[in-house]
Amino acid sequence: MEIKGLFTAIITPFDKEGGLDEEGLRSNIDFQIEQGVDGIVPVGTTGESATLSEEEHKKVVEISIDQVNGRILVLAGTGSNNTSEAIDYTKHAKDAGADAALMITPYYNKPTQEGIYQHYKKVAEEVDIPIILYTVPSRTMVNIEPETTKRLSEISNIIGIKDASGNLNQVSREIMLCGDDFAVLSGDDSLNLPLISLGGKGAISVASNIVPREMGDLVRSALNGNLERARELHYKLYPLCKILFIETNPAPVKAAMNMIGLSAGDPRLPLVSVRKESEEKIRGVLKDLDLI
């Protein structure tokens, strides 16, 4: 299976009472498909997986697969710092019909590189579904080192990595060690262009919740070697990519979505809505892009 292009790390919208907004989720998915993305990632970090109950987590995956109905790929977030729980979520995603699973590095436990390897290896052995690794040390406090990624890439159903390390030297090592059949995807929107230029296969994007068509154009232009167009879009979207991390993700992207009329609601505690000054800065960037 080839993982290539733009995949939106879709938010989980909540209603005014803080419950899952199923209608809003379905509407957001249709918006993404209409705007031409290659796939969505439900219940990742941006989907607030850490504050969803097990029932909600599985329901979001099921709704996403049902609404997509085969039109684009669904890469279901199934990671956990509990290997048994990760296996359960991954089995559920496969049974529900997900195309692949995106699995965050175990957080808080701070496993060694051997522990990281054994965690992913165990899940891959237990569930026959394509698996994409996800390294984001700013949130998990551990990194998948390129040598560990190389070892994991030798497991047949581990097919790629979402790299949000912010380290292009690491990305270069991953691509050198793992080869062209292994998909290295950008996990940081402001680095989508440079990462693809190094040989990455695409991006799992937060900003594409807001601008899926433009971000898709950037990613595909970079993949097709049209660097002039990709560079133009990079600088156009760069302020948005940065402002969406002015506070902890996904609070800023939810604020932006609320402003432009997409279903989002507030984040769940312990995350809170962005501060007034951040809200005004987000609004300013959206105005500059003629989104409001």
What does this structure look like?
The protein contains twelve helices and eight strands. The protein is α/β, with parallel strands linked by helices and 292 residues long. Strands 1-2-3-4-5-6-7-8 form an eight-stranded parallel β-barrel, surrounded by six helices. Helix 3 (83-96) links the parallel strand 3 and strand 4 (100-104). Helix 2 (54-68) packs parallel to helix 3 (83-96), helix 3 packs parallel to helix 4 (113-126) and helix 9 crosses helix 10 (227-243). The longest helix is centred in the last third of the chain and has 17 residues, at 227-243. It is globular, with a radius of gyration of 18 Å. The mean pLDDT is 97.
- How confident overall, as mean pLDDT? 97
Domain unit count: 1
The poorly predicted ranges are none
Taking strands numbered 1, 2, ... along the chain, how are they ordered across the largest sheet? 1-2-3-4-5-6-7-8
How would you name the CATH homologous superfamily? Answer: Aldolase class I
Total number of strands: 8
Oligomer: single chain
**What is the helical fraction, as a range of percent?**
40-55%
User: What is the straight-line distance between the termini?
Assistant: 38 Å
Radius of gyration: 18 Å
Order of helices and strands: EHEHEHEHEHHEHEHEHHHH
